[in-house]
């Protein structure tokens, strides 16, 4: 039988994954797979669960949100594990799974995984770390880091929205220097996003992003008068193309430097990122994914 490693976080999202384990394992077994499960916890890290990975495994199945996928990819890339991964989106925010059009319904996701072949997609690299969907800094970007875990598990994405509204009520600008071969910007901003996929917070922002083009999409929200800010943000949430605004810079690159002397954090896929200065690159076709269109 074909062998897969199944990494799952029982506390991810609404915690309902624990009630679906038997169904998940039985569906894969019925299709000729031997499933080797590993439960992630405070004392049992994901890295420990991957210590026995070798060429006998077909792929790694991970159940969780963006943070779980990010940690898995980072461990794999830094330890030269060249296996496809498959995703069961069970997190609070499943931005990356949505970008990949992986169904939130577990049974549908499994069907797509079993009936698919690996597809190569790009990754982002920020200093020494990898990201699958987004790296960011400025306002709103550390919302997921500041949300209480119990609140996040109880009301899900609404907790992110609450924190985001709190931030919007006290806009703060930051001085930043961004440099690439395509563009250089030195000035004030509210927010900078570097996207591999198209969405941040499940809002479609990088309209021209492609997961296999060898480029990352950079969006800089320049500091602007408050009366302009709210209508602009509302338009973007509704789906307006961001490249029509003079207050927003949008471009593609595969190599980017960012520096900021102010005390702000960075975020990669919902987790704390490295300190400035940042060197960001695209790792073209850096990972193989199952179950995507």
TrEMBL record:
Limits of the DAGKc domain: 1-130
Keyword 4Fe-4S: no
Cross-referenced Gene3D superfamilies: 2.60.200.40, Probable inorganic polyphosphate/atp-NAD kinase, domain 1 (3.40.50.10330)
This protein's UniProt keywords: ATP-binding, Kinase, Lipid biosynthesis, Lipid metabolism, Magnesium, Metal-binding, Nucleotide-binding, Phospholipid biosynthesis, Phospholipid metabolism, Transferase
InterPro entries with a match to the protein in the record: ATP-NAD_kinase_N, Diacylglycerol/lipid_kinase, Diacylglycerol_kinase_cat_dom, Lipid_Phosphate_FormReg, NAD/diacylglycerol_kinase_sf, YegS/DAGK_C
Lipid biosynthesis recorded as keyword: yes
GO terms, biological process: phospholipid biosynthetic process
PANTHER family assigned to the protein according to its UniProt record, in alphabetical order: LIPID KINASE YEGS, SPHINGOSINE KINASE
SUPFAM superfamilies (alphabetical): NAD kinase/diacylglycerol kinase-like
One matching Pfam family: DAGK_cat
Cofactor: Mg(2+)
PROSITE patterns according to UniProt: DAGK
Identification of the protein by name: Lipid kinase
Entry GO terms, CC: plasma membrane
Matches recorded under NCBIfam families: PRK13059.1 (NF009605), YegS/Rv2252/BmrU family lipid kinase (TIGR00147)
Similarity field: Belongs to the diacylglycerol/lipid kinase family.
SMART domains: DAGKc (SM00046)
GO molecular function: ATP binding; ATP-dependent diacylglycerol kinase activity; metal ion binding
